[in-house]
Design a protein that fits this description.
- With about 120 residues, the chain is α/β, with parallel strands linked by helices.
- The protein has a domain of about 60 residues: Rossmann fold.
- The protein is about 50% helix and about 15% strand.
- The protein has 5 helices and 5 strands; from the N terminus they run βαβαβαβαβα.
- Helix 2 packs parallel to helix 3.
- The relative contact order is 0.18.
Length: about 120
Amino acid sequence: MTVGKRSALCDGLIALIGEQPDMEMVGAAASLRDAVEKFVEMRPEVVVVDVDMPDEEGLEIIRRILLQSRSAAVIALVTYEWDQLAVAALAAGAVAFLPKDWIAERLVPLVRESSSRM
């Protein structure tokens, strides 16, 4: 599942994951409420959250998803490596963060690794 306000980013993530024979993108959400509702309904193993959202909404999404399931693996997408949002995402419970510039080469292996932890 992917969560973010930017439809182009979410569409790209859906396409990237959709190319993998061993993965399925079960949903996309653009808001806190929508993300939690879809998570509860679909129970994905891994959730990719763009934490660069207004009013720290991305961080709150991580917290709320983990309230629903402590075993969920949340990957936070950030603008810069080790920026404040990356550190805050880890503190909120994300298993990892990934700078957006690295999505094409590192997201799929990171999703696999995060899923195998479960």
